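not sure who needs this but someone in the group chat was asking about G-protein coupled receptors family 1 profile domain-containing protein from Didymodactylos carnosus so here u go. i didnt clean anything up, its just raw.
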Amino acid sequence: MNWNKNLTTTTTLFPEITSTINIYTTTTITNYNHIVKISFGEQLKNACKLFRFYASIFLIIIGMIGSILSIKVFSSTKIRRNSSNEYLITMSFVVVLLLFNFFCDEILRSIVNDFEVDLPLNLVDLSKLLCKTSTYLRHTLRFAAHWIVVAFTLERLIVVHFPLHTSILCTPRCAKRVCLFILIMSFLVPFYSFIMSDVIPSEQNHQNSECDIMKKYNLIYLYLTIIYGNLTLTFPILIVCIVNILIVRQLLKAANIRKKNKNLQYEEAQLDAATSTILARNSKLNKSNAAENEYYQSIVKNQLENDKVTWMLVVISVTFGILNFPYFILWCYICVIRVRGKTPTPFVESAKLISEVLHLLNYSTYFFLYVISRRSFRKVLVEKMRCRCDCFEQWRLYEMRSDVNNKIQNKKKISISQQQQQQFSNTNTTHIISSNNTNHNYHQLLVVRQQDNNIIGNDGHGREKARTRMIIVQDDKNIDKTGDDNKYSLGNIV
């Protein structure tokens, strides 16, 4: 009985123990999977932080050097001062300040917090005034840099679609006014960030402090940041995309028109060669045509230069849209998550760190775009740097050779056009001389006939002289006989 009782008790307890073990095992496996997922996300986030740190340092150095060189080149008297140069000078100055502020704010903070360097390098996190100033400048300079891109993109639209208004709306003075207006607005719009930012204790380590928004303004700051983000990212990207489509469409159309005009000019040159005798009768018409051709060539040359500048600015604005679009998408997504009261996952934060690198790359590539797309920029840059290394010397020699080749080609074109005009003028003069000789022979014939009539009337011996003169006149090839011996007429002069 006792054995049966113990067996019954053991049988009753065994399912409970088994179920408890299963529950514990399932919970352990679930927690292990959760730990693995969190650790992988954190590792990815840490790797992205490390990548952003080194990439940001490299891009800041390259971007600041390139922007300073751009200011030096565009401010030079050796390059033509136009409205686009004013925009690019202002944007280069803004980019220098923006990259320097990013270095003082993000890079120095990463050195102290992520690499655990026990040095007071993060001055922005230690001073209340520096914290407010850095936050305010970050918002201000981003707003200014993005809207300057919009400004010169709209200016190129005016140049391409409304060329008659270029002399009024696209002048350096007008560009300076637009840049001044953008800077004033960029200082006024994000002023809330100066008021709401302060040095507060860090959430991870309460012994340290960091520059952030005060907690009492978190909700208000979130909604104001959404408005600011739309003004800084959404509207500029949309405007740049739409305007660039219109500009590229018009540029391609203008290129096709110029191609057709070249074909028409070639056909007109052939017609001029065939009908040069007709045009030769009016020398003033030839002079007016030559003047019109020179004027047309000057217009085409200026239009080609404007198109080169337009293509460069289109490339800059397209690069702006491509590199800022991922940051814009992730920024909107994180704002929506925070409005709902949630926190973004480590994967989303990792993607945001990568998009910040692309956003920073946007400011660092402007100098290289200038070098690639503008030959005048390269030429002035070579003269300004005064460096004597081998590669630089080869680059300088290459630019000099290209200058010489371009001058030779232009001289050849001018000489060919002058030769064609000289040939036309020679043919015209020969026809004019032949026509003048024919007219002179005709007048001589009339005088001879008049004298012969007088001689015949006075003396019979004069008839023999008249016949001999008629025989001499008959040998002239420029005179056609239309009747008897006493009737002659002028032949076909032309």
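also The first strand starts at residue 197 and ends at 201. if thats useful
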